[in-house]
User: Fold this.
Amino acid sequence: MITDSSPAPGKLSVIQGKPNPHGATDSQLYLFTGDATTGPIKTVLPDVGVVLPGPSRILQDKDFFLCIFHFNDLHGHLMRFAPGGEEPVFSRLVWQMKTARQKFQADPRKAVLTLSAGNDCVGSIFDELLGSSPQNYQVHASYRLYSAAGLDAAALGNHDFDMGSHLLVQAIHREARFPILAANLSGCREMDGFRFPAAILTVKGVRVGIIGLVTPAVIKLDDSQCQIVDPIPVVHNLLPALRPHCDVLIILSHLGYSLEPGIALMRDAGDVELAQSLPYGSVDLIVGGHTHHVLNQQGLSANNIVNGIPIVQAGALGRFLGRVDITIRNHVASVTNVRLMPTDNLPIDQEFEQQEMQPLIAQARSLFTRSLGRVENDPNLSTDVVRNTFAAGELALANFITDAMIDRLLLTGHNVDFAMIDASCIRRGLMVGKEVTFGDWFNLMPFADTIRLYRMTGCQLHELLQDNASRIDRPGEPHTERGFLQFSHQVCYTVELGHTRAEASADDITVNSIPLIEQMEHIFTVAATSFTRELAFNWEVCTEQSIERPLMILHAVPYSETDVFLRKELVAYIQEQEGVTRTGGARLDGRLRVMRETRQPHGYN
Assistant:
């Protein structure tokens, strides 16, 4: 840990850091500490004995070439478990990064940097190696491998907080040999000394400034004092203080690409809006993440140069490695080449694979293959049925999950009336009639969703069910994610489809066998996942929905967060039930009935 002296508002301190020994050749690291969110930074105070470097004489007479490799949103997909064995992913990226580093090592005018734009965990089996608390922490596989691979800096992503700040701090402290950056993070005292607003990395005498940003959208902060602040004023606070000390200035952003309609899970600003707000060309590059955009696959697109600032992003899950070349001529930096390299086309760094990757795979494999029981021999639990009919009517797998939520919440001391989920918490179904392993369930439910408790009246529940009826997949219409909710067995009702989506209604509603009409003033406690209705944003804002009545905003209903992880509780429930069984709820029981209108072929009466 590096001590954070927390300078007064308007001031930042600069301390000497330790660059990744496997990273950029001939480098020094300077870390900015303090709060960049409170107002313009007017003073930069180097720590005792620290002297910020001035312009390098190497830039006076000849060009300097800087190669930047970048990736984002790997979500722990360091390798892929496949039926034929493990398929390397990160070891391929390492081969490309190491090859370039070795190629330029002896050249005083060429250098390599490697950056991650966040969301480095949550979504793979390696999450299980983190443990559940600092006391049983094992390893943050991504940070350990990034350190060994020579990563030079990383931004924080929203999902990096999913396991809680205690575990995140533990992971940074134990594994990260590179700076973690997030300038718009404020009030998180636990992270003081473990994350920084900005850094300057000198590489062969060239000063590269990096500002980190994290999105305020869909983020779980377990510290009530911790805030994610609008990134635009924060960058404006930092720029005048940081720019004079940099030959190249990069924003390492986990904001997402743009707030344009149709791009979900964003707030305040994306990279496009940030670039538009800045002085022309005041930043040399924005390396982005969060929205999984595959940008500039055929070279830097003019559409991705905003206000003179190039924006890059490399998709997600390690499918691409991004490369940006920057040429510095007469002390002026220009992005001169941009490309994405498909990871599958890259060779494997066999030394890295054997020495660094395989020991972690061995740990993960034992978890992945652990048996939980058997799956009921019911085709309604299959992947085809789940993917094609989740929002078309009652679903056996959704019944199992929601009933399990109630059972496990009661065991953990949470008194709830019923549970609900949408399709955001599952990716697939199961192999029916077969053994179910932890890996099978992880592939079905790979997200670190926690359970949220809503408090709603009977009137609000009635409104929610009417809203839900308008989101159901209808015969003859394409299926898309509209946020249709499936409920535990305590809620029974009928959806009358009507002739159009606007006419759909929920009728014959009972809760715990009592008509809802008799419980309109009752306060219900309702369990849902922390991501419920988030993926419905695209449909909600597009003209297709056009149902001529207002949609219910679920998040306007009062709710509280819990620290109960959905997947963990479902795994425990499956083990108790000795599999995904009918007795555990994996069956159709008539809790949802759909009354379908006969629809005439298009163009006929």
Remarks:
- Residues 350-368 form the longest helix (19 residues).
- The radius of gyration is 26 Å.
